[in-house]
Amino acid sequence: MANIKTKNKQNPKLQQATLSDGRASLYLEFYLGRTETPVLDEDGNPVYYTAGAMKGKPKYKIKHDRRKENLNLYIWIAPRTQQERLQNKNTLALAEKIRFEREQQLLEDREGYRLKKERISNFHDFFEEYIENYTKADKRMIQLAHRRFRAFLKETPAYAMYDRIIRQQQLTKEMMLAFVEYLKAHGKGEGPQSIYQRFKKVLTNAVEKDILPKNPCDGITIKVDEKTLKKEVLSPEEIKRLMETHYANENPVIQRAFLFSLFCGLRWCDVSDITYRNIDYANKLLIFEQNKTRGHSSASGVVIPLNEDILSLVGQPETTDDRDNKIFPLPSHTACLKAVKRWVKRAGIDKHITWHCARHSFGVNLLNGGANIKIVSTLLGHSSLKHTEKYTRASDDLMSKAINSLGSVNYSSMK
């Protein structure tokens, strides 16, 4: 009977699976390590050993990571002829050659991986280094992704021990699934998806730099209804109330910038970046390239007509040398958001308004005013009409609310 001789320390090991036709299929079994997950009680607290050499130490659930590779090679289980025995000998020799080659590849990969682990032993450090070197407009969202991940670790009993130090091999698929549920429970609208996308971006970079052997986020997604507008919008009447609302210690620069976004549809990262050079005063145009889509969308360049009222928000540069100065020298995004929320509250508007609501309000109000969806899509710098269609649905919802606000109809015909 054909038997495969394997040594305990071989990795991968050559194994066989018995077939119904009297043969055995040969395959390699790789051992890729193990993960340890703390055992928790019903209240989510760690379980400890109560006796023996491990007394007082926490219990862990061990999961071994193995992978198989089918060689498409076959041997006779009970060779009857000299030819079958010779065939088995040659097949096993070939299989052992393949096994040895795979073993050398695995050793080389692991040695390289070990060097990386020694250089960066804490994934939090890698994340911070990534943020420090990141220069794109969504850097603030990358920072938020790391803060949310650390908050998740700290608030989840099974992972609280990783709040300060977490090694690469401890980033498991189970942890990522739990992180996704945490994001969905602590956010709404497109927020959880946006944060998770940035988090995955960092892990993808770690894989590219051989810090991680594979991305534990692969196959895990957060789905949102992209056809529905999740954020609140300000109606023209509410915008008018804002403009009429003033209070002590208000910030006129932030207010002018927010109004400019309401009437031009700019994101915060764009309105905080445009200079007087982006204004064509002769033709009354705003010409700029969107930070979010710059370099990877044909629709990143946007041209928006300006009227006299909007130009009054911009003003004029004091000298020609000031054309490269920012129109709205804004503080941090957090400071701007606080100022807008304070302004909205003082105006008596009971809505959760963020800076991005200005962009959504611009799109919805244009559609409510009768603008063609293609025109709105162009003004917003959308690469496809599908991104603009959610504004149409929001516009329909607002029209329904307007009809319902007329009051009830109590009418009965004459009998």
UniProtKB/TrEMBL annotation:
Q: Which InterPro entries match?
A: DNA_brk_join_enz, Integrase-like_cat_sf, Integrase_catalytic, Integrase_recombinase_N, SAM-like_dom, Tyrosine_recombinase_XerCD
UniProt keyword terms in alphabetical order: DNA recombination, DNA-binding
Q: The organism sits in which domain of life?
A: Bacteria
Every copy of the Tyr recombinase domain together lies at 229-404
Q: What GO biological process, any one, is recorded here?
A: DNA integration
- CDD domains annotated for this entry? INTN1_C_like
Molecular function terms in GO for this entry? DNA binding
What Pfam families does this protein's entry cite?
Answer: Phage_int_SAM_5, Phage_integrase
Tell me which PANTHER family the record gives.
PHAGE INTEGRASE-RELATED, PROPHAGE INTEGRASE INTD-RELATED
UniProt family annotation: Belongs to the 'phage' integrase family.
Q: What is this protein called?
A: Site-specific integrase
What species does this protein belong to?
A: Paramuribaculum intestinale
